[in-house]
Amino acid sequence: MASHSHHNEFEQTGELPKAQTAVIWKTFFILCALTAVEFAFAFLMDPGTFRNSIFIVLTIFKAFYIVGEFMHLKHETKGLIWAVLVPSVLLIWLLVALLVEGTFYGESVFNYFK
Amino acid sequence: MSQTTTFEQPNTGTWDGGNEPLKASYGKLMMWFFLLSDAFTFAAFLTTYGLARHRHKAFEGAHESFTFSTEWWPVPDKVFNAFPFFHGVDWPLAFVALMTMILILSSVTMVLAVEAGHRMDKNDVQKWLLWTILFGSMFLGCQAWEWSHFIAGTEEGRILADGSVVHGANLVVNQYGPPLFADLFFFITGFHGTHVFSGVVLLLMIFINTVNGVYQRRGHYEMVEKVGLYWHFVDLVWVFVFTFFYLV
Predict the structure, then answer these.
(1) Closest partner residue to A62 among B112, B119, B239, by Cβ?
(2) Where does the chain cross the membrane (chain A) (predicted)?
């Protein structure tokens, strides 16, 4: 919704348009289902890298639905989508890099005298 | 030099600020970029959590035989297994799942408020904002309960080498495991809770403005949309906290 000039027509007629809520509730049920699946995996699978990868993938799916539909980013201009997505992707890359390198460095310092 | 007065005309050219390349208002853009910077804050927290966790041993034994010890990082569903009014019952992660559902629901009611704002439907905006405030406050109440339970601890506690018993948690020592576990719990969920609280305050402000007809007179409900962006971001952060603190 870029323009806010459309409201005058409602004021003249005095009638309010019908609510468009189907997409919103559909998104809600998808988010619930994904959370339920995560919850099930927490109890049905043994902890490990594979289970954690599933959690992370499902979390990213949930993030896409929240940002895309609830925050409306999916329906904004390409420029705004890239302006938000590119720093976010770089941030995730930074997080992974810091974790991998930091863990390696920590191990080598910790085990130096062993 | 002409002496006639010319009134200022709005700029319309491509290169003099006359168009909007991103088709979004200044306020909405700035909210997006603020939220990006906020994402960096929480990413720093999650990085710290990951590194602290990798510095400690993971629990190797069978899930049933898990005991609290500073030797290894605790298994979250053995720590967060309490539920209000069900004292001593082992319901792993049930309360956290409930909190997650409450926050996702509050996001839905927020979108409905924004949608009603687009239709200039004052009554609907009020209704959905009230629901959002209710769910947001419920989440804060749940977090208060979780914190007090985490701080008070269980009856058994953890027995130290000198025979004394630790109950619950503070920033120095806790019954669940290494001191950093409780520290990071307080910092990450505390920071997120502060964000939720700020969100509820903002929601109350725009609710009062809506009731007073401020946005109806202004001709648009963009302020509801901007606070909505903030609110969804808080929900988004919780999705990540839920995964990395409670599930992984």
Answers:
(1) B239
(2) 23-44, 50-68, 80-100
Give the total number of structural domains in chain B: 1
Q: Tell me the average pLDDT of chain B.
A: 92
Bridge partners of B72, per DSSP, are B57
Mean pLDDT of chain A: 86
Q: Name the minimum distance, in Å, from the CA of A55 to any CA of chain B.
A: 7
Identify the closest residue of chain B to A101 by CA–CA distance: B51
Mean pLDDT of B223-241: 97
Which of B25, B108, B230 is the best mutation test for A, with the most CBs of A within 10 A? B108
Instruction: Give the per-residue pLDDT at A2.
Output: 47
User: Is A8 within the bounds of a domain?
Assistant: no
The domain spanning residue B166 has which CATH number? 1.20.120.80
Q: Is B167 among the domain residues?
A: yes
Q: Is residue B45 part of a domain?
A: no
Q: What is the dihedral of CA B196, B201, B202, B203, to 10 degrees?
A: 90
